[in-house]
Amino acid sequence: MLLATFLEDVYLPSHIALSQRYGAALRESAGMFGRFLGRPARTRDFEELTISKFLASASTRRKPASVNSYRRRLLSLWSWAADNGYATREPRRRRVGTLPEELDPPEAWTESQVADLMARAAEEPGTVGEVSAADWWLSLFDSIYWTSNRISAMLAVPSPHYDGEGINFDEVVNSGKILLATGTPDPQDFLKFVRMGL
After folding, report:
1. In terms of pTM, does the model score above 0.85?
2. Which of 24, 25, 136, 143 would disulfide-bridge 128, Cβ 3.0–4.6 Å?
3. Hey, is 112 helix, strand or coil?
């Protein structure tokens, strides 16, 4: 079966929750595989050596992260095809190597940048809701710092309470506890200000 036909008529209709973006990425990988072969790819072209040669060729023009994405996509298609009778066997994934990827170092704020941010927040004029803007911003930054959560996650918590070890999220689906560092101030103090300002 042509890989494009398999993808459009079998795989994608069987995976209706896949995003359009990921569907486009699968089409791109299948198309590049076919261009490498010099003809439309077929499901019978799913062989470790053939895919490895394709990836080696792609690595001369693409970044390692892109090549590894092609590998993941093709092996996923192959595995599903085998599970559902469209390929003769499962891929032996270890025989299809990956390229080492250079990871970008995380971007972190320096101590002086954080100090400057906190100083500016402390000087913020006006109010947010019923709370002074300075208290609101400082409370929000403290909440994020001490819990390592995103702003949206902190504001979505209906009624957290602090038990001395962490903030309990009893009323949140998939609830749990975020442990805080020793010496953490009671987060209720600053969460209270953030909530009052909304």
Report:
1. no
2. 136
3. helix
Give the residue numbers spanning the domain of 15.
3-95
Within 10 angstroms of residue 19's Cβ, the number of other Cβ atoms is: 8
77 Cβ contact partners less than 8 Å away, ≥ 6 residues apart:
3, 6, 7, 11, 26, 29, 30, 46
Distance CA 169, CA 160 (A): 5
Q: Rounded to whole angstroms, how far apart are CA atoms 116 and 113?
A: 5
Helix residue spans in 7-132 (DSSP H) = 12-14, 20-37, 48-58, 64-83, 111-122
- pLDDT 10s digits, 18-32: 899 999 999 999 999
- 144 lies in some domain: yes
- Whether 103 is in a domain gets the answer no
- The rounded percent of the chain whose pLDDT value lies above 70 is 72
Any domain includes 101 = no
